[in-house]
Amino acid sequence: MEEPRRSTRTRKEKSLGDDFVSYLVEGSQKKVTREVIFTIDFEDDPKTFSEAMSSRDAHLWKEAINDEMDSILGNGTWELDDLPKGKIPIGSKWIFKKKYHPDGSISAYKARLVAKGYRQREGIDYFDTYAPVARISSIRTLIAISALKGLYIHQMDVKTAFLNGYLNEEIYLEQPEGFVVPGQENKVCRLIKSLYGLKQAPKQWHERFDTTVTNFCFRHNGADRCIYSKCTSDYTVVICLYVDDMLIISTDLEGISETKKYLSSNFKMKDLGEVDTILGIKVKRTGSQISLSQSHYIEKILTKFQHLNIKEFNTPFDSCVKLGANSGRAVAQLEYASAIGSMMYAMHCTRPDIAFAVSKLSQHTINPGVEHWKAVSRVLGYLKRTSKLEMTYTSSSGILEGYSDASWIDQTSDSKSTSGWIFKLAGGAISWASNRQTCIAHSTMEAEFIALAAAGKEAEWIRDLLSDIRLWDVPMPSIPMYCDSEATLSKVYNAVYNGKSRHIGLRHNYVRQLFENGTIKVVFVKSSKNLADPLTKPLTRDLVGTTTRDMGLKPQ
Questions:
Q1: Residue 253 · residue 239 · CB < 8 Å
Q2: Distance between CA atoms of residues 483 and 490, nearest Å
Q3: I need a surface site. Which of 234, 258, 483, 543 has the fewest CB within 10 A?
Q4: DSSP category for residue 400
Q5: Exposed (0-12), middle (13-18) or buried (19+): which is 306, by Cβ within 10 Å?
Q6: Can you give the pLDDT at residue 33?
């Protein structure tokens, strides 16, 4: 792409009135974002290549486009060739996006060339597309272990990750807009490596990364295929991969340094130093304490739905309200689904205190009514009041413990109960869930047993995860599972189930197996001390405050 001719006309900053002081800043993307403390964004991201080239930030978008093309061409992603007879090339599109710091300031301008993968034909242009990513629970568990044992946590980013995967299929791409080679307009790009937008791109990238790190003596974790560990006489190092973001955790800085050096020799990497933000979650380390915060994300949610006139609330769900199905027409169904999805990400990452409310509201996504929107506003109001809460892990508590609870049928219109469970390590929650049960429980005991079986399954997974990381003492002691149902405990300690329900019998056999293998031990706890209680039912203000603190959520 040719350099544009620069105008000799004197540039003047735009006047925004007496209430604003404006500055005209020129320079490269790195210079502007480094020297300007904050920027106010007046333009939306461009939708097309021509919009980007005619926008106010055209020189920054052009720099981002050139960086993307340098990565593609330098990586040997394609070669120009004639289109074979019978082959159909797929098109491409430029995607433009501004990236932001956790405080809301612009960090970078990104341009991505994306193939129109929706035009690919299954069985011809692609076959398998599955690619795993690390579980959020795995990331929280590794951070909790780091706080507990004082481990180093660094972060790296793979630049243009999907361009590293090799293709097994023969795919042709039209020359991208703005970069058609003069004199060879009729030729197409024969892809050698994968490109963003291709159906198989995530799978090919994960296979390439997997092969690369295992060749460096890393081994898979049996519980999570995106966690790799390596043990030497001097250090233990763990890699946690989420698409192109990775955490490198080690007992010694030498292990991190050697791992970074090896990865940089195989991929184009960006070293981000000590972890600061992962998946939009702010990570803050203070001495032996590590905190996870989504305060900026919550502020974005509140801004997005500010038209609801959100007021602050002390609890996420009104205990006096019984939400039922909407018998009338749906009220803003698409926006309702968007609100549920926005709250769900906060709930999955750092906010178990809203798990029950989000789970309950998500059951009415198809046909929401006015009462459901009021409940959504209440959850947002609670988040507004508690936006500064952080999930905190410390070195003071090295006990892994779990809690399970169930709420039997709470309304006549629904025959399914609600399960809830939560696990704590290093003083903070590492895994939790609030789900509507899939089968009918005929009593409180059966509902509690279904919840206990689900919690036992998660306990087994966490135990396998920790055992394979080799940062935990082996053999691991039994995980205490706290339950507030004495009838359920008596069934666990009874080797024979003599009931009529086959689905309860299967769960009884599973829990008994975990109990006999030493994976879990079931302990009675009062309902007022059960941390899974707020995951199954709405609580009063005082109980919400107490359980929230016990989960590890603390103010900044």
A1: no
A2: 11
A3: 234
A4: -
A5: exposed
A6: 52
